[in-house]
Each structure stands twice: as C-alpha cells, then as structure tokens.
Amino acid sequence: MDASDRVGEARARLGAGRSESKSTLPTAHAFGDAAAGPPLAGLRVALVHDWLTGMRGGEKCLEVLCRAFPSATLYTLIHRRGALSPAIESMAIRTSPMQRIPGVFRHYRHLLPIMPLAARAWRPRDVDLVVSLSHCVAKAVVPPKGVPHVCYCFTPMRYAWQARETYLGGWSGRPLQRVLARTILSRLRRWDRATAGRVSHFVAISETVRGRIARCYRRHSRVIPPPVDVAYYTPDPSGRPRGDAYLVVSALVPYKRIDQAVMACTQSGRRLIVIGDGPERARLEATAGPTVLFLGWQPDDVIRNHYRHCRALLFPGEEDFGIVPVEALACGAPVLALGRGGAAETVDDAVGRTYPEPTAAGLLRALDAWESQGCPADPSRARRRAEAFALPLFRQRLLGFLAEVVAGTTGHPTPPAPHLDLA
C-alpha cells in the first residue's frame, strides 16, 4: 500500500464518523503522554526540526509530537546528543552533513548561508504525513508527492525578514561585509519564499506570526499557540506577598532588548533581577547600577520562585509569541511588556501594562505610570489567561488539526493565496 492509499484509508475512517467528530474530540486532559489515537494511529509520519541543541520553547512543541508519534523519523540539521528530553532522544534522528563539521555546536548559527544546502539531505520516503517545526529551514523539507506537509511555523526565517536590518546593523562599521551580508540575506529571502510552496498547510504560533506568513509567503494559516506548563508554574500556595524587585527572564542577546530594562531600573534606582545568560551579559553588567543583580541561568524551580515573588516581570523584546510572560501570568505575576508581537496578545491592563515605545525611556514611563496607579493587576485573571495555553489543550488543538489535514476537512486552500489583502 503506497502513501496515497494509506492517507485515503485514513480519510475514509475519519469520514465515516465525521458527523460526530467534534463531539467525540478528546478532552483537554485526554492525550496525556500517549501516542496519537484514531484517525492518526497507524500513519507513517516524518518530523522535521531546524536543530536539536537544547530544550527551549520549540523543542517543547516537538516533544508533544514525539510522544504522539514515537515511531516517526525525526530529521534535523544537527543533534547534540543528550541535550533533549528522553521523548525526543528516543526518536530515530537523522541529521544533515552539518553534523560532521568540527565545532558545529559552537558556531552553527554562523552557518546560516549553507543551511539551505544542508537541508537537501532531508528526503523522507514511505510516509503519509510530514510535520515540520520551523523558524529557519525545516519547512524546506521535500515531502513525497501527494503527501500533506504541515508546517508549525514559529516565524518566517528571522534574519531574512523581520530581523534583517538588525542583523545588517551589526556590520555597520565594515561596509564590504555588509554588502556581502545583504546579498546573502536577499538570496535567503527568495529561497525562503520559494520553499513555502512545499508546505500544504501552515500553522502559526500567534496572530503576529499569522500576519507574517501572509506577508512573506502569501499563505493562509491556522493559529495554534505553543504550550505553557501551567501545572508547574502556579501561584505561591503559601500566599507570601510579592517583593519589590522587578524580574527579567531571558537569553541575553541584542534583539531581546534587555539593555532597556537594565537602563530603566538603573536610572530610577529600582531593583531588578536578571535570570539568563548570553553574549550580551558582560556589556549589560558593565552598564548596570548597584540595584541590578545578574543570576545567570537558573533551574526551573528558581525561576518559578522568582515569578511568584517579583513585583512584576519586565518584557521589553518583540517576540513571536512570548512564553515567559505567560509563565509569569500563570504564577499570578503582573507583566509589563512592549505592546508589539506576541506579548501584546496575552498582556493588557487587566494583568499588567503594555507600552508602545521600544526604548528604555518608554519602559521607564510605563513603570512610573503603573506604580503611580497602585500597580494594578488581577492575579486571578492572569492565572485564567495562562490556563488557556495549557499543554493538554495544545495537544488537543495540534493533533486535532493534523487529523483534519489527513481527513481533508481543513477548509483552507493548500496552494498560495495571491488574493490575500496584504496591506
């Protein structure tokens, strides 16, 4: 039986009970850690992820699919063995030729220009469904003819699109390198747009990313937000009051704009605790005042404790979704976030404050205004908002969508949609 026959058989199985499919959809807690049930059971699945070097938000999404399809083959550019959860490490993992480059785990982000070439090694065969999780090149996988390819898109390739000028700004003092970088990014953008045609169905992690998919790829997408572990991130059961220190939890890289939080708190004498590490740490520590404390990376229980007792979380970056603010909300913490990107979809005046200007001065004005109003925030509402992103709900939404794709009932066109209003 070939791939198209198996997909057709699965569609027939689902179609026979389609009239009651919505009423019989598993509850939010029904999936657990079990493999996918009918109509996905028995399908041969290929999973594709950009790279496997650690457990971050994208890998937590991947883990759900690995638990649902434990017999799937997982394709990736590089794999740092032992750096992922047991559910991912137990998969049949196939890497690209990049895996053999000496020192690749230290320098792989600098190998962006060769990643499209390396991705050509991904040629899944004898599968009924391909699912890619992509913010770089994973969506470029070539599925077998007639096999649906669902891309769970974290964002279109960041450096080719929304972070293009930020990246080029790093070469401002070296004009020749800047010209070369611009040429490479232009080629990557054309390649990224062209390979969108290999995807039959896009899923976006937020409304922000859905808009980017429409602008960059001229494609429809379904929004399914990523999961947040609200069973772990909970308010303090002891009811201990909050302290007076603000909190940042982030990788210390330029686009996160942590320098703005450091500057705002240094200038105003506010206490700030920074959890995270990265190439910006030394520079940030050099500019920080005595009220700013850097803790480096911390285990989850320490982060949860700070969520529970900080005055508020500060989130000055523009993110695709923003899992950290939702984790903080799950602990009942107020959040002050830049009103752009995914955080603007989860944070408002009921649970904290958003501010429009992506500068230290803009954040400082938001802090002053929020404090002058008595630091308004509703911890119960914050908790309820976070619960909408619970892991069981993510499983239900994503696996339910895959079932729709296999059954051919998604109701969305698979080819590009040039009639979209992209203004």
Kindly describe this structure.
The chain has 423 residues and is of the alpha/beta class. The protein has two domains: 3-227 and 390-407, Rossmann fold, CATH 3.40.50; 246-387, Glycogen Phosphorylase B (Rossmann fold, 3-Layer(aba) Sandwich). It has helices spanning 3-16, 57-68, 86-89, 104-107, 115-118, 164-169, 175-195, 207-217, 258-268, 281-287, 300-309, 323-330, 360-372, 379-387, 391-407; strands at residues 45-49, 73-76, 92-94, 129-134, 149-153, 201-204, 222-223, 246-249, 272-275, 292-296, 313-315, 335-338, 352-355. The strands form three sheets. It has a seven-stranded parallel beta sheet with strand order 3-2-1-4-5-6-7. Helix 8 links the parallel strand 6 (201-204) and strand 7. It is globular, with a radius of gyration of 22 Å. It starts with a helix and ends in a 16-residue tail after the last helix.
Which key terms come to mind for this protein?
423 residues; alpha/beta; Rossmann fold; seven-stranded parallel β-sheet; three-stranded parallel β-sheet; 36% helix; 13% strand
In CATH, what is the class of the largest domain? Alpha Beta
Written as H for each helix and E for each strand, in order along the chain, the element string is HEHEHEHHEEHHEHEEHEHEHEHEEHHH
- CATH architecture designation of the largest domain: 3-Layer(aba) Sandwich
Q: How would you state the average pLDDT, rounded?
A: 86
